[in-house]
Every structure is written in C-alpha cells, then in structure tokens.
Amino acid sequence: MKRLITVLFAAASFSSIAQVTETDKVKTGVEVKNIDTIAWIYNGTLNVGLNQGFLHNWAAGGELASATVNGLFSGNLTRLFNRNVWSNNLDMNYALFYAYSNAFTPRKMDDRIDFTSKYGYRLDTARDFYFTTLFNFKSQFTKGYDYEAPMWDTFSTSNFFSPAYLILAPGIEYRQGTNLSLFLSPVAGRFTFVSKYYTMRSPEGAFGVENGKNFRFELGAYFSGRYMVDITENMSFKTRLDLYSNYLAKDYTDSIGNVVKKDNPGNIDVLWDNLFSWKMTKFVSLTLGATFIYDNDIPYVTTTTDPATGQEVQKDEPGMGLGWWQVKQVFTLGFQYKF
What we know:
Layout: H1 2-32, E1 38-54, E2 65-81, E3 84-99, E4 107-122, E5 129-139, E6 164-176, E7 180-193, H2 196-199, E8 215-230, E9 235-246, E10 252-253, E11 259-261, E12 269-279, E13 284-294, E14 303-305, E15 312-314, E16 326-338
Antiparallel strand pairs: 1-2, 1-16, 2-3, 3-4, 4-5, 5-6, 6-7, 7-8, 8-9, 9-12, 10-11, 12-13, 13-16, 14-15
C-alpha cells in the first residue's frame, strides 16, 4: 500500500512538473514568435514609493517636514486564440507631495490613466502581420492646479475626463510575439472631451476644443510602436512611441478673422514613454520613468502673474528651453510586485 501511494505521488508530481514545463514552453514561444495556440499571457509591475524628510534648526535651510507618496502600475494582458490576438495595456500613475510650508496641503506631482486595447487577425500571406483594430483612452484621476498662480486653489486647470482622449483606428500591425508591436492606421479617429468650465475661460478654448464647446473630432494618421525587453532576470525596459497627424488641422481665428494659433497636418502630436525597472530584492525595486509629449493644442505660456504686484512677469523655472514639450521624469525606490 505504501509503495502504491509512493508511485501515485511520484506520478502526480511528474505530471505537475510536465504541465508547468509545457506551459512555460508555450509562454516562451508566444512571447518571441507568433504560433497557433490558445493561451493567456500576462505581465505587469506595481510600484509604491514613499519619500520623507524632517529638519530642525538646520543651518543649510530647507523644508521643515515633507513627504512624497507615489504609485505606478504598468500591465499587459494578451489572449491568443490560434490566428487571433487580443492585447490590452494599462498604465496608471499617481503621486502627491506634502510640505509643512503649505500646511501639508497635498500637491499633485503625477496623474495618468492610459489604456489601449487591440484586436488583431493574422494574415495568411505574412505571418508577422495582423489586420488590427485599436482603441485607446487617456485621462487622469483628479483635478489639476497651477500652483504658481495666485489663489491657485480657487480654480482647476484639468479634471477627470477633462480632457479625455479616445482613439479608434483600424490598421495593420507588425508583431513579434508580445515583445514588439508596430501599428499603423491611415484613418484614425480621435475624440477629445472636456468640460465647458475649461473651454469658456479662454478665447482659444482648451486642449484643442473651441471656446464654449466640449467636444472635438479629428481624423488622421496614427502610429503606435511598443517594445519590451528583459535586460536581465531582474531588469526590464519598456518603451512606446505614438505619433498622430490630424488631416483636418487648420489655423484658429478669432471673431474678426485674426489668426490666434497656427495649425496644420504637419504639426504631429508625439508621445514617447519610457520605463526602466530593476527588482533589487524580492519586494524592493528601483524604477526610472521618462515621458515626452508634444501637442500643438497645449502651448507653453512663458509668463506668469507676480503675486506681489499682480503684473505679468517672465517665468523663471528649470527646463524653459524645452518650449512646448511636456516632460515628466520620475524616480521611485520602494515596494514592487511584479508578475
């Protein structure tokens, strides 16, 4: 009887090991090449970081007490069904800064929601090419403020779904498993939604939406490229490049015909996103991210209001030479869960 139990246990163990091995083989195969299979492939990174400081009678000066809390999630879920592939990517960021000098009123440092879903069908003539339909949604979680403005807390500059960007695009996608994707659409529709609260505060409107309106439609060409690589077992790098050209772009004019803002299809919107992750221990990681955005609909204002005099003065801030480019750089050392 003992011998029979031993044999059954050994058989079950072998079966389990064999099953894991076969699953690993399938996963490894579909991540580097396109094969006919049925499987779910997923991966992701969750980072939560906390920075804190305290000073007392400190001769060099500084913020007496401060804290920064930030969180980052980047994940992918892909469904493979023979020649069909359904891929979903979700990126979320949020960070708050607290300081003694402003009574620990939270100030937002990062806020992002970015979701992309693609469904593709592999073509007969080319194994790595798919006819794909893409859906993308971008927005933020909470209100945004211009902290340099006098009485900044009496008005917001943005909010959840203000703005919100939706892209719906059919096109052709080149894929190398789940690590590389190059998507191109010549007829991509982009929708911008924003509350009239923001568009009515300026003659030019806000976020590309005209004054007094809350919706804008664009039709253009769209490219989205993604690449992910495991540098080592504990280091990974992800990058993404999105380009959009609006065929319907034209100069904005005021009520008497003066050109308020120049625009044309050559003003290509750019999003370049980069994320480096290093898992130092089981639950401690280092994350370095950098995002670069150019959008002709969001100009860079070089002046601000002096709170003492109420007059317009030239801004004095780091990175002024970058002009209209939007730049975000984050560094996080904290807790990480990777799957």
